[in-house]
Write a structure and sequence with these properties.
It is built from 10 helices and 5 strands, in the order ααααβαααβαβαββα. It has about 300 residues and is of the alpha/beta class. The protein has a 5-stranded mixed β-sheet.
């Protein structure tokens, strides 16, 4: 025999199968709202009957008969970050007339016998109009200069003219005309800037020259060797002693030229290397600059008055 609980359960089961003779209570307002929103409430499954694939209404069949809508989807391979698939499109060569309306206020920051002179590609629009080197917010030059140890503190672009006096550092470019980005320059005008660089270094005679970007070194190599640099010939960091820049050999005051260091580009448009990889390369230059600055300071302090 069943107890009171079992009897109540059986009664409940039977009540589910018997048609109800009592008047159904009014539906809550939120149910009525849903019915108004969905329209045909026959799409809702009957809780007393399991839903099967064959139990479809005419409205559902019409929906299934609709042609599939084509969607423009971009397939990204597994394990690839979507952000890495977004690439900036280069603008391509632009003749000097495109920016002839701009007044280029940028000038070299040079002085004789500096520890190191940094060679950039060319001034960007913001740099040219403000007259201060590496002045775009996305450019990493001043941050890398400090983090590597080339400067003891983080300097501002507005201090570019004080670099020779403050830290025995100089700034110049291989091409002087401004563009939006480096792709708007031609290889011919970059190669033409090599002779001018050599003349500047022969005059000012810095201890070292740091090339800020691979494409600048490629131009220097083309002019010097008459061919493009091969992949296995390129390397970041200090170059062979035979690659010194600005050497003077045709006078009584011979000079072997400035040591050459190839650093990474600092442009925010370049995404070929990660920040920590750039920092590792720049650190090698910064350690040498710090060492030479200490040696110069010690020499000045020991010099007789």
């Amino acid at each position: 025999m069943g107890g009171p609980e079992e009897s109540s359960i059986e009664e409940a089961r039977e009540s589910d199968t018997r048609p109800s003779t009592s008047k159904a209570p009014p539906r809550p307002s939120f149910v009525r709202t849903l019915e108004e929103f969905w329209g045909d409430t026959s799409l809702r499954p009957d809780p007393g009957r399991p839903t099967t694939q064959s139990s479809t209404t005419d409205q559902q069949q019409r929906h299934l008969a609709r042609p599939e809508r084509k969607r423009n989807l971009t397939v990204i391979p597994a394990g690839t970050s979507p952000a890495k698939k977004l690439k900036r499109t280069s603008s391509g060569y632009a003749p000097p007339s495109k920016y002839s309306h701009l007044v280029n206020k940028l000038t070299d920051s040079l002085a004789p016998n500096l520890i190191c002179v940094f060679v950039g590609l060319n001034p960007g629009i913001r740099t040219a109009t403000t007259g201060h080197a590496y002045n775009h917010p996305s450019n990493l030059f001043w941050k890398l200069l400090h983090k590597s140890g080339c400067t003891p503190r983080l300097c501002r672009a507005e201090e570019d003219g004080d670099m020779p006096r403050l830290y025995d550092l100089g700034l110049t470019n291989i091409v002087s005309r401004p563009t939006k980005d480096g792709s708007e320059l031609s290889k011919a005008e970059m190669d033409a800037g090599v002779a001018e660089l050599e003349a500047k270094f022969a005059l000012q005679r810095p201890e070292a020259v740091a090339i800020v970007g691979k494409s600048i070194w490629e131009s220097i190599w083309r002019v010097r060797h008459g061919t493009n640099i091969k992949k296995d010939q390129f390397k970041y960091g200090w170059q062979e002693d035979s690659e010194r820049l600005g050497a003077v050999t045709n006078s009584g005051d011979n000079w072997p030229g400035a040591r050459l260091f190839v650093a990474t580009t600092t442009s925010g448009l370049a995404a070929g290397m990660r920040l920590y990889e750039k920092e590792e390369i720049w650190k090698k230059l910064g350690e040498w600059v710090e060492k030479r600055r200490r040696e110069r300071t010690d020499k000045k302090e020991k010099a007789p008055e």
